[in-house]
């Protein structure tokens, strides 16, 4: 069976015995925690026998608790949201966020990526799905440091046009956090095969050999959804590094943008 655990429970719920339903109800409400619980703990917490839990596991298509835990862990590692309770306090969440940030910043060297981006004729920032807001944020930050920064794909548009026009003095910055679309690898390969240089921000080193610079940012979370706090922090640092690589041009551009803001009365006073 390849469907998610929640789908398996829902599909066969009516055929379960009352005791199995009781255990299934507990499992359905604590999906994320099942990555840690063994059959004895599930039995105790749901108020049924261990034999009932073992029988339920087999009904759901798992040989034992280890196989079920592996299934839940695989879902979480792929970025699939797994329902979980909001923590009663946020200490565990804070610890995870700090661990992500420390991992992202440990040994981080932004100079190679900043030099490429600062020296490029044109910068194309690419992001899909959950990476798209991060790409939009990076493009906005880089646009203060230099001109010629584009976002791809634009809403409702394909990306082939942007990649077809890449030149040797261009840089493609790809943001690819997990749950990447099927075309992601093709986009990286096409960009890498062009004359442009490629910078990748990702939670994985999977595409490291295909790009010029890889910047890793973990997105692990104690909740059902990935966290992009570390990625947002690295984006801020990268944009600042680009600005620092071209201080005179950046200062002049920021001043011009400030003048435009005032002329158009775009920002609060």
Automatic annotation (TrEMBL):
InterPro entries (UniProt xref): Homeodomain-like_sf, HTH_RpiR, RpiR-like, SIS_dom, SIS_dom_sf, WH-like_DNA-bd_sf
Chain segments annotated as coiled-coil in the UniProt record: none
GO biological processes: carbohydrate derivative metabolic process
Keywords from the named record: DNA-binding
One Pfam family here: SIS
Gene Ontology MF term list: carbohydrate derivative binding; DNA binding; DNA-binding transcription factor activity
Segments forming domain HTH rpiR-type: 3-79
Domain SIS: residue ranges: 113-250
Protein name as it appears in the record: DNA-binding MurR/RpiR family transcriptional regulator
Organism of derivation: Conyzicola lurida
């Amino acid at each position: 069976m390849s469907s998610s655990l929640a789908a398996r429970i829902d599909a066969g719920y009516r055929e379960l015995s009352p005791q199995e339903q009781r255990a299934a109800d507990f499992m359905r409400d604590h999906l994320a925690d099942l990555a840690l619980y063994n059959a004895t703990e599930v039995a105790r917490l749901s108020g049924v026998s261990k034999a009932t839990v073992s029988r339920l596991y087999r009904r759901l298509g798992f040989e034992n608790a280890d196989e079920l835990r592996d299934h839940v862990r695989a879902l979480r590692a792929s970025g699939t949201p797994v329902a979980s309770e909001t923590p009663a306090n946020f200490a565990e969440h804070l610890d995870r966020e700090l661990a992500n940030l420390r991992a992202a910043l440990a040994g981080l060297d932004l100079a190679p990526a900043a030099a490429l981006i600062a020296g490029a004729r044109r910068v194309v920032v690419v992001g899909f799905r959950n990476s798209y807001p991060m790409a939009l944020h990076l493009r906005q930050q880089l646009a203060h440091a230099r001109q010629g920064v584009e976002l791809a794909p634009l809403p409702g548009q394909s990306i082939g046009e942007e990649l077809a026009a890449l030149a040797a003095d261009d840089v493609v910055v790809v943001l690819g956090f997990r749950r990447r679309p099927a075309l992601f690898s093709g986009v990286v390969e096409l960009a890498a095969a062009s004359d442009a240089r490629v910078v990748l921000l990702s939670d994985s080193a999977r595409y490291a050999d295909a790009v010029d610079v890889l910047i890793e940012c973990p997105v692990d979370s104690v909740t059902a959804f990935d966290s992009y706090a570390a990625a947002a922090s690295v984006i801020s640092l990268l944009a600042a590094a680009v600005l620092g690589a071209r201080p005179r041009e950046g200062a002049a551009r920021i001043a011009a943008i400030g003048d435009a803001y005032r002329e158009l009365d775009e920002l609060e006073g």
